[in-house]
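Batch manifest, entry 17 of 40.
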Amino acid sequence: MLRFCWRVSLRASDLWKDRKGQDMIEYALLAAALVVIVAGYLPQDVMPMVSNVFSKISSALAKTPTGS
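Output type: structure tokens
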């Protein structure tokens, strides 16, 4: 499991450094599809907790100043 996490971490850092716009859009779409698939398998009583977490993240990001 640790090896898998390490590989995912390395791949994520490679994606972060990648400057190709098309690839980043494809990965964003893949991540969105993965979120939809995982959300379909979650029990209904878990969904309000997940929604609460995303609401907190969204409000925290809204408070952060953008660096232009």
